[in-house]
């Protein structure tokens, strides 16, 4: 790279060396000469993440009918998630070795192929196999988190990672809507899809096909992404080509030495501690999701809201819209003003205060109930987005670039373990709370939301610097 303009030279760091044929160096050069948000790249990242989230949730509305038709057991929807989480470490390691882009592209191709074949399933074993392969071969979520921190300047990392969180959350909202609208089209829209047609023979193919078509757009977007992993030889000069930014990041996370081996990741306390705290907060979110649905549909005499499942779906849809607005408008400004870790702690405190008010919401009715509950749900999920994004940043900043994919893989694998316990714990506590409605201390739903606040308080306590191994 030669003949830089004088204006760009001001932004370049003198100690850096940019290797002409290294894609990672080209990204570093762009970051050092352009201070703005990489809008086109972030849009591609958002679309790619959305395309990965949709297949997970799109089967929820028609899962019951598929179970009935195939005579299979429940929890088919979990197979892909757990398969993907348990192979996340492998895909993260491959992303560190061969680059983020190949893993992202391969994962998107997997969505296109196996999500389509899942829609064409005719029996239990085919559905199970397609769901397993869809999850285990699609390992792009960890690498794309690492990618979002590497493709932009440090001041834009929070926005980039919040895009991934928001795209994932929105996908989990849009997916069920697509599945419910498009499944069994021959029964719902006989004039468009007559008996004997392809979509009558395969009643769950249409939603899968539409999502696969969207994933083709994700594939195009992922192909256009620039690679961020450095490919030049690991000489001293080559290390300095991107070493200065990494040194600043490592100092922020108080990691004293450069981590050269995969084994040393397990000795990197800033990384491991941030993963632990993230999993505690995620356990809270998963338990909350289970409890919220149960609480909303339970009878008012038990402290619930007596909502129908359709009303719960409407609440979640409004929450998805509110989350999108928060992510694009308020969060970037708040994060720049306060810093990502401070934002996470404030969000945790506000979550505790908010959930303390939930039992009182059941005393409302009509329009006031709808307004308060929608507002509370949006706030709760906005707080969760802020916390998740903060710990994504902390995890990625705790390791050098050549270990970020593996670090995110460790995080996702640990998360899958907590995900297994979250809903079960939430359901058990909800049942226990229902049995003690007449207790003198924290009766009924008061105990249920107190349990959630205890978990959140644990995460808040662990988020302070002594546990995380941060200076100051």
UniProtKB/TrEMBL annotation:
It comes from the Eukaryota. It holds the Pfam family MFS_1. Its main location: membrane. The chain crosses the membrane at residues 41-67, 104-125, 160-183, 204-225, 275-297, 309-331, 337-359, 414-435, 447-468. One of its GO terms (cellular component) is membrane. Residues 37-471 form the Major facilitator superfamily (MFS) profile domain. Keywords: Membrane, Transmembrane, Transmembrane helix, Transport. One of its GO terms (molecular function) is transmembrane transporter activity. It is found in: Membrane. The keyword Transport applies. It is a multi-pass membrane protein. Signal peptide: none annotated. This is Major facilitator superfamily (MFS) profile domain-containing protein. It comes from Papaver nudicaule.
């Amino acid at each position: 790279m030669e003949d830089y303009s004088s204006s760009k030279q001001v932004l370049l760091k003198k100690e850096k060396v940019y290797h002409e044929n290294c894609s990672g160096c080209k990204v570093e050069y762009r970051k050092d000469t352009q201070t703005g948000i990489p809008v086109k790249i972030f849009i591609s990242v958002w679309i790619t993440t959305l395309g990965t989230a949709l297949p997970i949730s799109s089967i929820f509305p028609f899962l019951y009918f598929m179970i009935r038709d195939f005579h299979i057991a429940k929890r088919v929807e979990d197979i892909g998630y757990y398969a993907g989480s348990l192979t996340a470490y492998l895909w993260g390691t491959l992303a560190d070795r061969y680059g983020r882009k190949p893993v992202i592209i391969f994962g998107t191709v997997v969505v296109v192929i196996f999500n389509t074949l899942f829609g064409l399933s005719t029996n239990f074993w085919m559905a199970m196999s397609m769901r397993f392969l869809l999850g285990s071969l699609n390992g792009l979520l960890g690498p794309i988190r690492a990618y979002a921190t590497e493709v932009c300047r440090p001041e834009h990392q929070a926005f980039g990672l919040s895009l991934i969180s928001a795209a994932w959350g929105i996908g989990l909202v849009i997916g069920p809507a697509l599945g419910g609208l498009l499944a069994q089209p021959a029964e719902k829209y006989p004039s468009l899809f007559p008996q004997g047609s392809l979509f009558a023979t395969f009643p769950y193919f249409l939603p899968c096909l539409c999502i696969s078509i969207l994933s083709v757009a994700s594939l195009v977007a992922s192909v256009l992404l620039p690679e961020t992993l450095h490919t030049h030889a690991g000489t001293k000069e080559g290390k300095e080509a991107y070493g200065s930014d990494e040194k600043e990041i490592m100092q922020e996370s108080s990691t004293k030495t450069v981590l050269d081996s995969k084994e040393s990741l397990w000795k990197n306390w800033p990384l491991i501690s941030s993963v632990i705290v993230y999993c505690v907060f995620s356990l809270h979110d998963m338990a909350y999701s289970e409890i919220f649905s149960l609480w909303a549909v339970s009878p008012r005499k038990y402290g619930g809201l007596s909502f129908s499942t359709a009303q719960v779906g409407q609440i979640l849809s409004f929450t998805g819209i509110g989350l999108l607005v928060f992510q694009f408008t308020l969060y970037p400004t708040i994060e720049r003003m306060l810093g990502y870790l401070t934002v996470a702690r404030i969000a945790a405190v506000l979550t505790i205060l908010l959930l303390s008010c939930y039992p009182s919401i059941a005393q409302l009715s009509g329009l006031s109930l709808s307004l308060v509950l929608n507002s509370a749900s949006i706030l709760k999920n906005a707080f969760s987005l802020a916390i998740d994004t903060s710990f994504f940043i902390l995890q990625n900043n705790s390791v050098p670039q050549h270990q970020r994919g593996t670090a995110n893989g460790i995080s996702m694998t640990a998360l899958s373990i907590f995900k297994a316990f979250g809903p079960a714990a939430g359901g058990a506590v909800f049942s226990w709370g229902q049995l003690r409605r007449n207790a003198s201390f924290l009766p009924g739903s008061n105990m249920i939301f107190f349990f959630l606040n205890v978990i959140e308080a644990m995460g808040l306590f662990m988020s302070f610097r002594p546990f995380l191994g941060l200076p100051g």
